[in-house]
Amino acid sequence: MVKLRLKRIGKKKEPVYKIVAAHSQSPRDGKFLEAIGTYAPCQEPAKVEFNEARLFHWLKNGAQATDKVLSLTKNKGLWLKWELMRRGKDEATIATEMEKWTVLHAEKLVRQAEKLVARKKKKKAVAAAAKAAAAAPAPAPAEAPAA
Questions:
Q1: How far is CA 46 from the centre of its chain?
Q2: Are the C-beta atoms of 80 and 97 separated by less than 8 Å?
C-alpha cells in the first residue's frame, strides 16, 4: 500500500519535511516513490507547497494520506478539490466551490488572528494586575493580645 506522508529533511531543531508517496512499510526517512511537496513548520506562517497534479495522481491510484498530510491538504483546500473531482463535478462547479472556500478560509484566518490578539491583550492585563498587586505594600498583620 502506498501512503502520502512526511519525510524529515531539516536540521536539528529546524525541521523541514518533504511530502512523499512511499510504501507503507518503508521507514520514515527511507526510500520513497516520489516527492510531491514540502512542509516547513518553523516558518511563520508555516510554508506548505504541493504539486497538485502529482498529489491527485497518487490519490486517484489509491494512495492513503496520513493524518498530518490530510490536515495540510485540507488547510490548502486541496482535499475539497479532490472530493469534488472524485464525485465527478465539472470544472465550473469546482471553480465556484473553491472560490467560496477561499473566501471562507480568509475570514476564518482573520477571526483566528483577532482571537490571538485578544488573548495576548488579556494576558498582558493579567500580568500588569499581578505586578501591581505585588508592588503594593501588604498590610501589617494585627498583633494578637497576650493572654
A1: 7
A2: yes
- Average pLDDT on 41-68 reads 93
Global pTM value: 0.76
Q: Is-contact 20 42, C-beta < 8 A?
A: no
Contacts of 6 (CB under 8 A, 6+ apart): 17, 18, 19, 20, 28, 39, 66, 68, 69
**Phi, psi of 28, rounded to the nearest 5 degrees:** -55, -45
Question: Which residue in 136, 87, 80, 131 sits closest to 105, CA to CA?
Answer: 80
In this structure, are residues 105 and 113 in contact, taking their beta carbons and an 8 Å threshold?
no
Residue 122 pLDDT more than 70?
yes
Spatial distance between the Cα atoms of 65 and 61, rounded to a whole number of angstroms:
12
| Residue 59: Cβ-neighbour burial (10 angstroms; 0-12, 13-18, 19+) | buried
| CA 97 to chain centroid | 22
Residue with cell 510554508: 47
pLDDT tier for residue 120 given thresholds of 50, 70 and 90: very high
